[in-house]
């Protein structure tokens, strides 16, 4: 805990057996109270590895629900555990758990309700192995989103995020997509509810075992991101209110 606030780390997992132990061993249990792993019907022994490591809260989907569907289960379970601060961390070790302290204290001290770990702040993205086409797409999408959503984030596409309980209880994330665009819908909802987001610099790590979507899925994701940003824009000017922004 920090300031009597319970901290829960959620791990949306799919075929993460090779990297789960390394990720889990770096979680700072001096402040983290609970860990939730949701296995999205992996083809490997992710759930068994999680059990071996001593993770108590393991949920395995009977069918693959997608990245967004996995996160919904993660957050619902975290709220069930009465978490005050929830850290979403990928178990593929693409993001270092060593930032959990910094992210948690920002929320626990009442500075911000949302913290994201940005791979774009600083100059480490390409150095850390981010493919050039993904870097260019990230910059283009982020610029477009900032214009349409009137924000100034360095990126919207990181998978390393921290939320206060208030955010999870306010945002209707269960109405979002079950696919990768879930992340962008969530941030759009966060801004729609007038929460502010803090960013911290995160090292970039790309390697064989780290999860990454292919070019085709990336294009689908990019189009989905543009759609979310446009829906946010027309919602804010009062032309149309999409379901994810409704009360």
TrEMBL record:
Gene3D superfamilies on file: Spore Coat Polysaccharide Biosynthesis Protein SpsA, Chain A
Transmembrane regions: none
UniProt-recorded Gene Ontology molecular function terms: transferase activity
Record InterPro entries: Glyco_trans_2-like, Glycosyltransferase_2, Nucleotide-diphossugar_trans
Keywords in alphabetical order: Transferase
Pfam families on file: Glycos_transf_2
UniProt xrefs under PANTHER family: RFBJ PROTEIN, UNDECAPRENYL-PHOSPHATE 4-DEOXY-4-FORMAMIDO-L-ARABINOSE TRANSFERASE-RELATED
Protein name in the entry: Glycosyl transferase family 2
